[in-house]
Amino acid sequence: MTGGSLAPRTGSYGSLQLPGIFNNNNNNINFNYNGKPIARKTSAKMLFSGPREKDRFLPFVCCLFLGRRKVAMLLLCVLALLVFTLGSLTVNKENTTPNVNQRMGNIDPYGKQVASNPTLVTPGVPYGKQVASNPALVTPGVDNMPKYRNSSMQNDKRKSNKNKVQHPLSPHPCESFAFPPPPPPGFRRPGPRPCPVCYLPVEQAIASMPSSPSASPVLQNLTYVLDENPVNTESHGGSDFGGYPSLKQRKDSYDIKESMTVHCGFVKGSTPGRRTGFDIDESDLKQLDQFHEVIVASAIFGNYDVVQQPQNISAAATKNIPFYMFIDEETEAYMKNSSVLDSNKRIGLWRIIVVHNIPYSDARRNGKIPKLLLHRIFPNVRYSIWIDGKLKLVVDPYQILERFLWRQNANFAISRHYKRFDVFVEAEANKAAGKYDNSSIDNQIEFYKSEGLTPYSETKLPITSDVPEGCVIVREHIPITNLFTCLWFNEVDRFTARDQLSFSTVRDKIMAKVSWSVNMFLDCERRNFVIQAYHRDLLEHMAPPPPRVARTQYPRVPPDTNVGNSRKKSPARRGKGDKKSGSKRHRKIVAGNKDNNISF
């Protein structure tokens, strides 16, 4: 190659010597007083004799100085950067669409809105106050919390500040918690997945428990209707267990007053579980009447699920929090035949409560009784956590209560659906999946439409969803939450057992009367503390796993001690007849012997 040297070179690999640094192998480099190396004067003709040589010169210099491997890695990095940039542009294009219905299609727990427009958030000002003063910060279907804040939905802006309890830990240890960045486009796993949640240690969570009950807005005294001989006077559904409330009684139940009497199941007796339908043994009733700060409850009816044992439960929770599992006689018989249930009526942490004289033929509807009416079965309990029978609890109950109730100054928490936000869309999905009779779903939706139900839109902000994922309910037992679940149960009793369809109707009617709201947290946060299993019928129809093939273990051969000595000796030259039968050369000769290559 012709051309002048651009800088002094070192003695190895022809690399350029940096200005001002001497080479130990060659100290005869001359520097001028400005600290710059003296380069040989070279004309432009000497550098490149033609355009073809110039084109060949540049790749040669890159390969010479960087090496072929480094050049290949550099090209791969440039290609990856290009793909990442194109993917980012695609994501930004999806986020900037003005269609509300499209934005409600998916949940993003990573705060894309704030990331794409950081000027929306004022540093040092609580995000809930900014939303109250500027509703444009919130977009339905997108998690609207800043990345440096926790992502649970803020309480309704109408909630009175005087009812809020100052958290004992100030500033909160999870104040600066943020979701990790989202995965690159195209690398996301399909389906809903759990996301990180910041929990306090169990000791700090217990210390965060409020010393007094939360204030119940307006409603202070709630009693329940008793009717030993209920009569159905209207065409709409209902049951003897629910008491057949009329449409007028239903309307009056949403007129919130200081003292109220409403239908709330168990209408045939003064003590729930005692000759009221959904009957419970006397020994169990005495235990359910005891005072508890916190309980965890679940149910399995119709032998529909397999009992899931909680995990990661602290010693304090094991000692102080009872775990109750309600089952019917069918499930009890199966457990006894399979030797799962012992004489103490315990399965691990679960205390089994057998229910007799169940009021409904539908096991799913029977399960709504303990799910929504726990305050009636446990009259002396402050907090409860309900989980469906198919779920396994994997986080301590104290940590769950602190995260979703006490930290948020909330008294009712439920996760929103991971995909759907609109009741009309949820109804169509239930019909498509065969969850319930299609005509019954249509009748329920038509009734709600006649009362003014409309598709979800931005007018409902800051409410971000009308559809819950109702398999987990975290609540405090105070009059307003007791009323909410009573009226919610009445809708399930009157219409279909799909409680997702009636949730928003009951919530919105109560919120229109009093300053109260529901903490609807992200579904991915729910999946952080419960793990969903399959129903029993699905497990029984699944193909069994393939049997494990036992590998034959051969005895170990001791190493040959003469190997090292044989290597030291120079082997004598072998003849053709002395070649080893197992050598590569022998196999090659057999495969391609000259004598066998006969031409015809």
Structure overview:
Residues 222-535 form the TOD1/MUCI70 glycosyltransferase-like domain. This protein has helices spanning 44-47, 51-66, 68-95, 100-103, 112-116, 127-133, 202-207, 247-252, 282-288, 315-320, 329-337, 363-372, 374-377, 397-406, 423-432, 438-450, 479-494, 503-511, 523-529, 536-541, 563-568, 584-591; strands at 221-224, 259-262, 279-280, 292-300, 323-327, 346-347, 350-356, 381-387, 391-393, 412-416, 468-476, 519-521, 530-532. With 600 residues, it is α/β, with parallel strands linked by helices. Helices cover 33% and strands 10% of the residues. It is globular and about 90 Å long. The model is unreliable at 1-49, 91-164 and 579-600 (pLDDT under 50). A hairpin with a 2-residue loop joins strand 6 (346-347) and strand 7.
Helix-strand blueprint:
Elements: H1 44-47, H2 51-66, H3 68-95, H4 100-103, H5 112-116, H6 127-133, H7 202-207, E1 221-224, H8 247-252, E2 259-262, E3 279-280, H9 282-288, E4 292-300, H10 315-320, E5 323-327, H11 329-337, E6 346-347, E7 350-356, H12 363-372, H13 374-377, E8 381-387, E9 391-393, H14 397-406, E10 412-416, H15 423-432, H16 438-450, E11 468-476, H17 479-494, H18 503-511, E12 519-521, H19 523-529, E13 530-532, H20 536-541, H21 563-568, H22 584-591
Parallel strand pairs: 1-2, 4-5, 4-8, 5-7, 10-12
Antiparallel strand pairs: 3-7, 6-7, 8-11, 9-13, 10-11
